[in-house]
Amino acid sequence: MTLRRALCLILSLSIAGPALAAPAQLLREQRAVTLGGAAETWQLVWQGRPRSICGPEDVEMAITCPCTGFAYGELGKLDLVRLRGGKVVDRMDLGPLFSDLPADDADGLAAMQWRQMVSRDFDAAADGSSKAFLAEVAKRPGPRMMRLADYDHDGVASEFLVQVSAGPCGHTEYAAVGVSKAQPKLHALSSKDNPASPLVLPGSAWQALLGPKPRTVVNYPCGDHGADQQEELVVGAAGGTISVQRVLRACSDEGGAGAEVGREAM
């Protein structure tokens, strides 16, 4: 081989190589945000290509309780990124917020729904038309995650919910991530009684926080998964501060909730 041909071969390999490699980053979602009069772009960005979790290739797994809210999903290293003028000004690794994901080697990784599962999927996946079924799922619109709201009542709608776990059947939990007046860098919201830890609540409790007054949300009613006590969450927010009380009530033999038997701040 001549020197010229060898140099051409090396050059062609150097050009083709990166195209064959996995993407360093993959944009999941983005939206325009205005903070303090400044225009920003917020992005959910996968670091490398995510892998399937509770995916349509295994519908029997996807319909189980641990996959509630994650089917059909993606799993990997996921960052929330803020840009101003096209330049990154802030970044948050979302992985540490997640727990008990239904996948091996998931520590430190994030999961997020990629396409929605519908009731007819079990029959469609079982009829042997797997390729057609997977193609149909892929055509469905992906759910939007960055729906900003003012959960801490600091006057700025700059947080959105991220599902971080799926507990017993019918129970999913969320953290709220974004920025606030008191903490202008990306972070997970916390409560006044536990400021060092992200606040994780069921979706109904986060929605109750959007109201003007404190509210009580029943998280585990009497008899739910055999519970002999009812668990309630008393939630409220004002001036950028969130308060949460976990209240336990005794259950009667008839299944009704009675007197309070315990209370603690969360």
Determine the number of helices (DSSP H or I, runs of at least 4 residues).
Answer: 5
The main sheet orders its strands as: 1-2-5-6
What can be said about the biggest beta sheet? 4 strands, antiparallel
- List how many beta strands DSSP finds: 15
- Strand % is 35-45%
Helix content: 10-25%
Order of helices and strands: HEEEHEEEEHHEEEEHEEEE
Structural class: alpha+beta
Shape: flat
Mean pLDDT metric: 90
State the low-pLDDT regions, or none: 1-20
* End-to-end separation: 72 Å
Q: What is the alpha-carbon Rg in Å? A: 23 Å
What's the topology here?
Blueprint: H1 3-20, E1 25-35, E2 38-47, E3 51-53, H2 59-62, E4 73-76, E5 78-84, E6 87-93, E7 110-113, H3 121-126, H4 130-138, E8 159-166, E9 172-178, E10 187-188, E11 201-202, H5 203-209, E12 215-220, E13 229-238, E14 241-251, E15 257-265
Can you walk me through this structure?
- The protein has helices spanning 3-20, 59-62, 121-126, 130-138, 203-209; strands at residues 25-35, 38-47, 51-53, 73-76, 78-84, 87-93, 110-113, 159-166, 172-178, 187-188, 201-202, 215-220, 229-238, 241-251, 257-265.
- Among the domains are: 22-142, no CATH class; 210-266.
- With 266 residues, it is an alpha+beta fold.
- The chain is flat.
In short:
The protein has 266 residues and is of the alpha+beta class. The protein has helices spanning 3-20, 59-62, 121-126, 130-138, 203-209, and strands at 25-35, 38-47, 51-53, 73-76, 78-84, 87-93, 110-113, 159-166, 172-178, 187-188, 201-202, 215-220, 229-238, 241-251, 257-265. The strands form four sheets. It has a four-stranded antiparallel beta sheet with strand order 1-2-5-6, with no helix packed on it.
